[in-house]
Amino acid sequence: MPSARRVCFLLRVKPDRMAEYRRRHAEVWPEMLDALRETGWHNYSLFLAEDGLLVGYFETQDLEAALEGMAARDVNARWQAEMAPFFESLDGHPDEGIVPLTEVFHLD
């Protein structure tokens, strides 16, 4: 089995929405968590800086399949619609803004 791909991406949360963004992620819907696991998202973390920079990280065997799997889930459409207003400079849903950064080093 091939090793998992590590994916890191950046988004920016609006300063006036950061507290609510944190609260929402302390209470992610169980069905959303199940959908992420079922579509190949593993070791998924979000980190939020005080200036609103959001760093996302997850591992997956197949990035395209993981993204497509979530895109096909109704719970994801509902979650993304609720999260979209939290972000700056975003056209569409937050998961459509995932542009993986290029990994330049990994300590294994």
Automatic annotation (TrEMBL):
GO terms, biological process: rhamnose catabolic process
Question: Gene3D superfamilies attached here?
Answer: 3.30.70.100
Gene Ontology MF annotations: racemase and epimerase activity, acting on carbohydrates and derivatives
InterPro entries reported for this sequence:
Dimeric_a/b-barrel (IPR011008), Rham/fucose_mutarotase (IPR008000)
The record's Pfam families line, in alphabetical order, gives: rhaM (PF05336)
Write the protein's name. Answer: L-rhamnose mutarotase
